[in-house]
């Protein structure tokens, strides 16, 4: 246990780093491993429901999965008007995976770190130097990785729909179109700069929005855990109930913005 509040907060906000001395090339083992486990849980649950699906007597889990799929499919059809076999599964994966990452914030603050410390102590490590952050979406590295993947999808969708030449032409001609070849050549650098700003702004906005909301939520839970037991329940319960809406909304927003960004990528101006 930490000796004071400052050490307690620092301990809870420290990542399990594969090699702190490696700097950029180190890996946040907790973020990576928990994200991977949650991804397998998502795939496993949906695969299990698909295998045991029943039209006559659907169970509660099947109804829940079907309602999520229907919700995502409806949103995609409303926004994404091109034909694609990837858009709806991508949106479904984003919503469920981000939701599961966010939902880790609903676990008791000290539960998994305490288990990790006891495992570390059993393996001969100093428990004070065993770290575990359990909310992957509160790690800016994870949110940036997901948003960069979305940016790659945007580029891929654009090239697939318009061809490499068509996408390159769009970078040089949109948003300012000119029918005069001389004027078009003059405006091409300006068009390219605007396109790059727009392209880079999308992953930045996606990642920082999710990271900011989940990091602040995690920090509030840590601060509540420092209060006396009675105040923890008085403040923690209402915040947890409200936070259920936050984690769901953030997953929904990340999914919706992804589809919104992909839609113009397959449309001609």
Task: Give a verbal description of the structure.
- This is ATP synthase subunit a.
- It comes from Paludibacterium denitrificans.
- By secondary structure, this protein is an all-alpha fold.
- The protein has one domain (5-266).
- The protein has eight helices and no strands.
- It is globular and about 70 Å long.
Q: What share of residues is helical?
A: over 70%
Rg estimate, integer Å: 23 Å
The major pleated sheet works out as:
none
Number of helices: 8
User: Mean of the pLDDT scores?
Assistant: 91
Number of domains: 1
Low-confidence stretches: none
Give the overall shape, derived from the CA principal axes. globular
Q: Count the E strands.
A: 0
**Series of H and E elements:** HHHHHHHH
Structural class: mainly alpha
Strand content: under 5%
Cα separation of the termini: 59 Å
Membrane topology: Multi-pass membrane protein
Subcellular location: Cell membrane; Membrane
GO molecular function: proton-transporting ATP synthase activity, rotational mechanism
Protein name: ATP synthase subunit a
Q: Topology, pairings included?
A:
Elements: H1 5-12, H2 29-51, H3 60-79, H4 87-103, H5 111-122, H6 140-173, H7 181-225, H8 229-262
At a glance:
The protein has one domain.
List keywords for this structure.
mainly alpha, 8 helices, transmembrane helix, ATP_syn_F0_a_bact/chloroplast, transport, ATP synthesis
